[in-house]
Amino acid sequence: MGDFFKSRLFWIALAIVIVASTLPLYVSGYILGLLTVAYYFGVFAMSWDLLFGFAGEVNFGPTFLIGVGAYTAGILNSEYGWSVYLCILLGAMASVIAGFLLALPALRVRGPYFGLTTLVAVLMLQNFIVVFAGLTGGEIGLTIPDVITIDAGANYWIALGFMTISAIILYGLSQSPVGLVLQASGQDPVQAGALGFNIVKHKLAAFVVSAFFSGLSGALLVFYFGTASVGTVVDIAVGVQVIVAAVLGGRRTVLGAALGAIFLIVAGEFLRPTGELATFIVSTVALLVILFFPNGFLGTVLAHGERS
Amino acid sequence: MSGDRQSAPVLEIRGLTKRFGGLTAVKNLGFDLRAGEIFGLIGPNGSGKSTAMKAIMGIERPTSGDVIFLGENVAGLPAHKIARKGFGMVFQHSRPLNRQTVLENIMVALLPDSLFMLFPDQALTERAKWIAERVGLGAVMDRRPPTLPFADLRRLELAKAIARDPKVVLVDEPFAGLTLGEVGTFSELIRSFRDEGRAVLLVDHNVKSVAALVDRVLAMYLGEEIVTGRADEVMRNETVRRVYLGGAIETSARPETSFKDKVPLLQVENVSVRYGKAQALENVSIHVHQGEFVSVVGLNGAGKTTLFNTISGFLPYSGEIVRDGERLRGTSPARIARSGIVQCPESRELFGEMSVRENLDLGGQHLSDQDKDKQISWLFELFPILQQRQGQMAQTLSGGEQQMLAIGRALMMQPKILILDEPTLGLAPVILEQLSKALEKLRQTTPITVLLGEQNVTFALPHADRVYVLEHARIVWEGDPGRFAAEAGQGYL
Fold first, then answer.
1. Are residues B195 and B261 in the same domain?
2. Which of A275, A286, B168, B196 is buried most, with the most CB atoms less than 10 Å from its CB?
3. Where does a domain end: B191, B218, B245?
């Protein structure tokens, strides 16, 4: 861990945080709002990388975890009027429980079947929301009475702080002894088992951690938006965006995933004048990066660092 | 009493059986392993030795039988529980953590199976350093695995296996991919494990490679024990000799001068192939004449499949492969196959969910309907069983029938050179006889050229006109099959 403070990664991360903290001084509220969303997305992507990059499991349904957290928090607030912070906490807890219940049976099946199980979970959640429209707001979305604050600056600081703390915890976890065992389990499960590690236990724990941060971030996001809708926190397309962000940023780097998410959201917005083409251009860039720099932004930069 | 305890086995295997569907890979295996002993589990490819090792370690769940460790039956426990009881396993292939250093890789092996180990423990680092020194990785502790030579990666595997001071060490093919000098160093290391009082179980293909190392050997064939004893006793055993060398082999070689072509049909010249850091072929040169039947014999891992895959165009190589005076480099595998060099691979690669007939039709796809019918009826004469099984799904055939279908499909392509890679793998002796007859008929009645790769010498020699012996990626002997037993047979046990 001592080496970390001398590493290139640390300096990159520090520079980004410093730049991000000075932004409110000279950019518009509109851009701050955009970045607020991007930072929450960054946490989605980092949580996803913990599973894909370290546990070696492809979770096609990150929005299952995000959606459960977001909707639980939103519904509790709109139905019972409980305090925002309690709702956020309970949302994260609900996501952990849902993630645990999903992963426990899903981890028994191998390879692509795990991914398919997680995909089906998203479809089920989406269906549930549409069917129980009275509770969830259905396809129109759920209007949430409270928000954390309406001040764009404060919202920005909350999102940046949350992303930074999540990044420190998730990155620290990935580099800790447990993280190494997780990585070994993902890379060579047979050998990790023969070294005396209960692989299912470690992967399950990773899933629970991933669920906690996804759910927490999802809950914070709905209290920023003031609404929860399928299109913003549950739809498969949102999940795909999270996955693309993580791969784009760099597999197995955790921090890269956040960069990828910020890039996707900011680039999509800046290209908005091109109309329908925006999504196409962003997707093309993502595809090219994945094809020619499979290690992603951060993975590529770090690999150069190691060689020089 | 204390003397009694000293000789009490650390590990007792009783009636160990492992079935995969209808296939019994390990049948009623039993042996004892004592502290301070190196025990070899030996058998040709497909004999079930690796499965037996995995069943002991808990990687495969035994179908029945006991694995008694210090008086406690651990059979059926998952691998991680068995490992914590005092087992370490050295894998042949490994995927170390490439972004971590050698030292960190060893440290992982030392960690407890806990979710709350968030900060590295200094004592573990010290222990990891000590282990690194112990296996000869002291100088490269801070390097990352991708920068290490192959032998050091193997050392890393040894280090991980002994990290938690196991009482039983299982080693899968200790010398695979190592040079002769490295074999010596690794033998010393494994001996030192024994001298520390560990019980060591080795799995390998032949007795010879581990003879100098093991105290006792159990030879297996088709999942069952043939004999257990000292290495030299086992090597003298009649059944063992028959399994590896065959009994009295009748050969019917045609002298090389009887082949009319001045330049051989297929020439492999100084071909070398590497898989990452492991040398799979080293300056291999062989040639095959028009109409000749050439056998390449060698144990599993010697490089036979690599040689054939190189000829078929699947692997990059240095050196030259020349066919009919034309260099094959740069030709795609599909084109090579269509031009008449057809490989029947070791793994058979049948289309399991297609019928026997559909598999054959695919092989003969380029033929006109008339030629295809002719070729199929000729093939059904060669393998009558395939005619009866025409409508059956390929994956429901028995092992022997599948092999016949694989050869049949290759023959449907009307090969000029047929490459057969280990057709006998895992097949019972009766089936071998049928295959052997078919090959003899092929040789007598067609002008086909055959290149056969085998570890089963009994099967490889009778039809061969010439034999090459491949060992550790190199051709070590070439000659007449009649001279094989006298000149090269000993090294083969």
1. no
2. B168
3. B245
User: How large is the average pLDDT for residues A219-230?
Assistant: 94
Contact B108 A191 (CB under 8 A): no
Nearest alpha-carbon partner for A64 in A10, A1, A4, A115 = A115
Residue A274, domain member (yes or no) = no
In-domain check, residue B251? no
ipTM above 0.90, yes or no: no
Rounded to two decimals, the pTM is 0.78
- One DSSP character per residue, A180-212 reads HHHHHHHH-HHHHHHTT--HHHHHHHHHHHHHH
> Which has the higher per-residue pLDDT, B416 or B482?
B416
Kindly list the residues from chain A whose CB atom is less than 8 angstroms away from the CB atom of residue B114.
178
Domain that holds residue B177: 2-245
* Test mutation, A188, A195, A254, A306, chain B, max B CBs within 10 A: A195
Which of A173, A193, A205 lies closest to B78 in CB terms?
Answer: A193
Same domain, B224 and B159: yes
Q: Kindly state whether residues B312 and B410 are assigned to the same domain.
A: yes
> CB of A20 within 8 A of CB of A156?
no
Q: How many domains does chain A have?
A: 1
Partner-chain contact A184 B108, CB within 8 Å = yes
State pLDDT tens for residues A52-97.
999 999 999 899 999 999 999 999 999 999 999 999 999 999 999 9
Half-sphere exposure of B411 (CA within 13 A, CB side): 24
Q: Is residue B250 part of a domain?
A: no
Examine the domain organization and report whether B210 and B317 are in the same domain: no
Domains held by chain B: number = 2
B235-246: average pLDDT? 78
In chain A, which residue's Cα lies nearest the Cα of B147?
Answer: A307
Residue B260: C-alpha distances to residues A112, B288, B416, B466 (Å): 55, 12, 16, 15
Please calculate the CA angle A161-A166-A169 and round it to the nearest 5 degrees: 130
Contact by Cβ (8 Å): B149, B109: no
Reported as a pLDDT band with limits 50, 70 and 90, residue B467 is: very high
Burial of B366 (0-12, 13-18, 19+ CB in 10 A): exposed
pLDDT recorded at residue B6: 54
> What CA–CA distance (Å, rounded) separates A167 from A173?
10
Interface touch B107/A180, C-beta < 8 Å: yes
pLDDT tens for residues B89-101?
998 877 889 888 9
> Which residues from B are below 8 Å from A202, CB to CB?
115
Does residue A8 sit at the B interface (CB-CB below 8 Å)?
Answer: no
Phi, psi of B79, deg, nearest 5: -55, -40
Q: What are phi and psi of B76, to 5 degrees?
A: 95, -10
Contact A178 B115 (CB under 8 A): yes
- Please report residues of B whose CB lies closer than 8 A to that of A194: 57, 59, 79-80, 83, 87-89, 91
Q: Could you tell me if B157 and B284 lie in one domain? A: no
Domain that holds residue A181: 29-236
Residue A106 contacts by C-beta under 8 Å, 6 or more apart in sequence?
Answer: A113, A114, A117, A118
Written as one letter, the residue type at B17 is T
- Please give the C-alpha separations between residue B488 and each of A104, B243, B252, B456, B474, in angstroms, as whole numbers: 56, 16, 18, 14, 14
Is B270 part of a structural domain of the chain? yes
Same domain, B189 and B320: no
Q: Which residues contact A154 (CB under 8 A, 6 or more apart)?
A: A148
The two tokens of residue B371 are 């030629």
Residue A306, pLDDT > 60, answer: no
DSSP-derived secondary structure for B58-120: TSS--SEEEEEETTEE-TTS-HHHHHHHHEEEE-SS----TTS-HHHHHHHHHS-S-TT--S-
Last residue of one domain, picked from the residues B221, B245, B269:
B245
Tell me how close the Cα of B51 comes to any Cα of chain A, in angstroms: 14
Q: Does A160 touch chain B (CB under 8 A)?
A: no
